[in-house]
Amino acid sequence: MDKKAMYHLTYGLFVLTARLGEKDNGCIINTAGQVTSTPNRISITVNKDNLTHDLVKESGKFNISILSEDADFEIFKHFGFQSGRTADKFDGYHACKRSENGLYYITEGTNAYISATVEQTIDLGSHTMFIASVDDMEVLSSVPSASYAYYQSSIKPKPEEKASTGKTVWRCTVCGYIYEGEELPADFICPLCKHPASDFEKATL
């Protein structure tokens, strides 16, 4: 079985934002889509390890900011490679505004945002799927949406070329994190972007 076949599925990329009490947070997700048009509903799927997951589950509301091809790698690092449990991602971050529901949406490197209220949750083990009704939405720019493939080819920095040491490593194809060792544990989760072992590829340094 070639697990890389999964990479040929089409994915968008999004900043999911939520708020509970006075706490705002956001994270990068790649699973959001419309599920019905009448009434207008969307679904998102979020890793349970993310603080934003807990804020959505408790508050029942979220915003999705759709990343465009204008997005740079910094937005992925800011919302994807640090935890809201140890960092305030909106402290000093100015490329955002609050929508009518009181939640932040991202104003740079995005082309639209959608505000939604959770109607149903589905437990998927490591993730939760949230089915939500759309409350509001706005188009912010005409720049095409960034696909997962576009992120890989045009946004994510390429690995630096170094002299070979012959050491076997496993490289995360999403964020570039390196795990050293001959074998990667089947249940390994990337500590930076939270992607599973199936998103790692074997390499030699």
Count of individual helical segments: 3
Name the shape in a single word: globular
Beta-strand share of residues: 35-45%
- Kindly report the average pLDDT value: 91
Report the count of strand segments: 12
Report the end-to-end length measured between terminal Cα atoms.
26 Å
Percent range of helical residues: 10-25%
Strand order of the largest sheet: 2-1-5-8-9-4-3
Report the uncertain regions.
none
Radius of gyration from the alpha-carbon trace, in angstroms: 17 Å
| Order of secondary-structure elements | EEEEHEHEEEEHEEE
Characterize the biggest β-sheet.
7 strands, antiparallel
Instruction: Give the helix/strand class.
Output: mainly beta
Pick out its properties.
three-stranded antiparallel sheet, 205 residues, 12 strands, 12% helix, seven-stranded antiparallel sheet, mainly beta
Describe the 3D structure:
Helix content is 12%, strand content 40%. The protein is built from three helices and twelve strands. The model has no long low-confidence stretch (mean pLDDT 91). The longest helix is centred in the first third of the chain and has 9 residues, at 51-59. It has 205 residues and is mainly β. The strands form three sheets. It has a seven-stranded antiparallel beta sheet. It has a three-stranded antiparallel beta sheet with strand order 11-10-12, with no helix packed on it. A two-stranded antiparallel ribbon has the order 6-7. The chain is globular, with a radius of gyration of 17 Å.
